[in-house]
Amino acid sequence: MKTAKVVIGANFGDEGKGLITDFYAAPHGENALVVRYNGGAQAGHTVVTPDGKRHVYSHFGSGSFAGAHTFLSHFFVCNPILFLKEYNLLRGKTAVPPVHVDGRAPVTTPYDMMINQIAEEARGDGRHGSCGMGFGESIERNANSGFAVVYADLSDKAALKKKLTHTRDNWVPQRLKALGITTLPDKWKERLSSSAVPENFMTDIAHFLQATQLAGQGFLAATKKHIVFEGAQGLLLDQERGWFPHVTRSHTGMKNVLVLAGEAGLNALDVTYITRAYATRHGAGPLPHELPHLPYPRIRDETNVANDWQGTLRFGWLDADLLAVSIAKDLADNKSGIRLRPGLAVTCLDQLEPKATVVKGGGQTATDGEALAALLKKAVNAEFLITSRGPTRRDVSAA
User: Fold this and answer.
1) CA dihedral in degrees (48, 53, 57, 61; nearest 10)?
2) Same domain for 336 and 245
3) Distances, alpha carbon 235 to alpha carbons 30, 148, 154, in Å
4) Domain end: 213, 246, 262, which one?
5) pLDDT score, position 354
6) Are residues 268 and 393 in the same domain?
7) Are residues 326 and 230 in the same domain?
């Protein structure tokens, strides 16, 4: 039976997907393949190795420190500008394993990033919680065949230059009008009209192509590597199931995985849904049981620093009922015949006080870390449980 691991955030993101992906990939090293099945450069998955190396992964699979290869699927949005920034950071820490890209993968242009940032600035206090990296705008533009740019298009420089000019002169004003933006600050007028923007982008694309490899048709079906599907964001940010408009433009759960698993000829999937021992959200939108302070004084988070687009990380009590409903809905998407073995990973248990608080049955329940993990496992009907009491794979236990 051909099987693979799946890593899914069960909340609003920031659950520990990087840690668990690294945990699954490490035993196989370069014989592991991490498949990015949604999202794009706005992901931020932190991995800390036992010897102290640290990196926040966006494009690269979170098994890269362990030597795992990365596959950017056709559900992943590539951002050549931000890819290169990450590539240069990563190669200063380790040898960079190969990155394979599906030719159908959409590509973010600098104009998508500008539209995204212009729109969020215009929303003021009504911001959607975007990271300002152009992910959703890339999806919007690529839905229009006249303006779409995918990875396979990047090698034709002449055609790409024409497409960029066409995008700037036609798509940008069309899209801004649709967003209700009729006037622009001078800084955005200057950036949009700058000839340096497309020129620099063409240079970035050339480096991006040098650093990646086009994955041919049937790549997943042909691989002999151990596959780990790494998700981005979380179930509560899914474009169909989250609190619109504070969602991401992708399927954050099993939908994309099942398509890719079918392409790979997989028969079974071990699906690990991940939650912290408390609730978090970075960006605007609802956060059930939100607190005006840290739920536990030991909490430390070096990745989710305050920024102009998403503000500061928010905290709340974990809702076991909401967790169970979200996971059950996601598992119900499986009509493929592929066998799913659902499990739960609970991270950040080391940050709890002697007593933890969880919302169950509409009320708050006090428990300790061990009992909390067992309570959550039962609540979501998980077949296996993984716990973490620290930032590295050595701090992870599987039961």
Assistant:
1) -80
2) yes
3) 29, 27, 32
4) 213
5) 87
6) yes
7) yes
Compute CA distances 318 → 44, 141, 204, 274, whole Å: 21, 36, 42, 12
Question: Is residue 298 a part of any domain in this protein?
Answer: no
The domain boundary, picked from 182, 213, 244, lies at 213
Instruction: Evaluate whether residue 166 is within a structural domain.
Output: yes
Whether 12 is covered by a domain: the verdict is yes
Question: Do 65 and 175 share a structural domain?
Answer: no
CA dihedral of 165, 166, 172, 174, whole degrees rounded to 10: 160
Q: What is the pLDDT of residue 128?
A: 47
CATH of the domain at 200: 1.10.300
User: pLDDT tens digits, residue range 207-241?
Assistant: 999 999 999 889 999 999 999 999 999 999 999 99
Q: How far is CA 391 from the centre of its chain?
A: 18
Confidence of residue 373 (pLDDT cuts 50, 70, 90): very high
- C-alpha 381/C-alpha 154 separation (Å) is 45
Tell whether 292 is covered by a domain: no
Note the pTM of the prediction, 2 decimals.
Answer: 0.94
Q: Give the separation between CA 242 and CA 376, rounded to whole angstroms.
A: 21
Which residues face 99 on adjacent strands?
Answer: 70
Q: What is the pLDDT of residues 48-70, one digit of tens each?
A: 999 999 999 999 999 999 999 99
pLDDT band at 126, cuts 50/70/90?
low
Please give the pLDDT value at position 369.
84
Residue 125: per-residue pLDDT = 60
Look up tokens 């940008």; give the residue. Answer: 172
Query: Shortest CA distance to 2 belongs to which of 377, 193, 270?
Result: 270
Helix (H) or strand (E) holding 84: helix 80-91
Domain that holds residue 209: 110-213
